[in-house]
Description:
The chain is an alpha/beta fold. It has helices at 52-65, 79-82, 85-89, 110-120, 129-138, 180-190, 208-218, 233-238, 254-261, 293-305, 307-315, 326-341; strands at residues 2-5, 15-20, 37-40, 68-74, 92-96, 123-126, 145-147, 167-171, 198-202, 224-228, 242-245, 266-269, 285-288. It has two domains: 2-150 and 325-341, Rossmann fold (3-Layer(aba) Sandwich), CATH 3.40.50.2000; 167-321, Glycogen Phosphorylase B (Rossmann fold, 3-Layer(aba) Sandwich), CATH 3.40.50. The protein has twelve helices and 13 strands. The protein starts with a strand and ends with a helix. This is Glycosyltransferase family 4 protein.
Amino acid sequence: MRSMTGGAYAQLPLKLSFISLFEENPKPFFPIDPRIARHTIYPTVTHGIQHYFDTVRRLKRIVRQQHVDILVDIDGILDMYSLPLKRATGVKVISWEHFNYHQNPGVPYRRLTRRWAARKADAIVTLTEADKKLYEDNAHPKCPVIAIPNPMQRITPEPVYDADSRTIISSGRLTYQKGFDMLVDIAARVLPQHPDWRWLILGEGEDRPMLEEKIAQAGIGKQLILKGRVDNMADYYRQAAMFVMTSRFEGLPMVLLEAKAHKLPIVSFDCETGPAEIVADGVNGELVAPGDIADMAGRIDLLIDDEERRVKYSAQTLDDAEKFDMATIVEQWQRLLTMASSVC
Length: 344
């Protein structure tokens, strides 16, 4: 959860605080500006719906003690704790969706919190225009729904596309969502026809044993390589010929924004939200009907065999990148928070 505390909202920046259910490590993974206060609801790792009422009570205490005016839920599932506080504390709640309206990975009651947010939240933020429409068409929200994407990092020095590369990369957690099982099936069609190419999968997860078995059965273990977790992602992007994503569903896939920032041609399943707002089909990449393994293999073959097309796609990757610019996104959040604060 992210809280906005303090007074003069008309003169941003605001006073910011982070509120976490708990913190597993003494230091956060990413550096946090020291001016941002951090609070935890529980001093130790605490999971489970059985703690629901205690969690709401503890969060209410923090909201009151810190004079929180606006709570931004980082993932709308946290609405279940924030929305009950509105009546008692007057806090404004902004529900920030990080998947999409139809997806409930691992948490079936997420769909209930989305409907609750549609009735009671002060605003809903989606990552894509497609998901904004899903909310409006299905939940009929009583509050504004605003699409604000995550930012795309600008790379320095500016990447130079390596047209001679013979490496395909994919990355992500090795889970059902990311569709790496389908990726193995695609690679089994592509790689034997191109023995001088290799395909690297960057990431770790519970599906590794299953994927290792599939790769061995397909006989492509020398070309399709599970690299595991890597710390130097930028090096792999700079040395790749293209990026491939086989996800079954996404919110707004950061891996595609990273590939785009590194000027890589992209081949991606066009899952319900995300890829179509990053990739322009036939302009800087290829969008494939979800789950169409044969077509995905054919599109990758096309790019492997057509260096000129790869170079053209690379040259046009940043044509529509302004909507992912950090300054643009900060301005959108400032407008939203100013709007919410005006009725505090």
